[in-house]
Amino acid sequence: LKALIRDNISRADKEGVGIFSSDDAERLLERSRLTWDDLVARRKRAGVRRRIIYTWRKTKPPPGRVRENAVYIPYKEFPCTADISIAGDRVALVPYDEPIRAVAIEDAAIASAFRAIFNALWERAK
Fold this sequence. Notes:
Layout: H1 2-11, E1 15-21, H2 22-31, H3 36-46, E2 49-55, E3 70-72, E4 82-87, E5 90-95, E6 103-106, H4 108-125
Parallel strand pairs: 1-2, 2-3
Antiparallel strand pairs: 1-4, 4-5, 5-6
């Protein structure tokens, strides 16, 4: 997971996009001994912006958890069970259940299709 995150940041050019369940992703990072602050710092050092669509399994996230360049969709409307990240020509999928694992697909057409889905959902959710 750590290698995938490093690789995604290096592939993102200026912007990466992602869809995830914030509280599930946070638990996954903790199990991997990573933090949100670490990821944000890595992206910042690399000059990568990130737009995200996120859910929150419980209720709407507390005000301190609202993310920059992000749109929130209630979990009941969008039950997200895996992190989806699109960076360059790669789509990375990371399920939240055990064991920790990831699948990366490097294909321009597939990345373009996932990016189109992301953009449509982004516009709908704004």
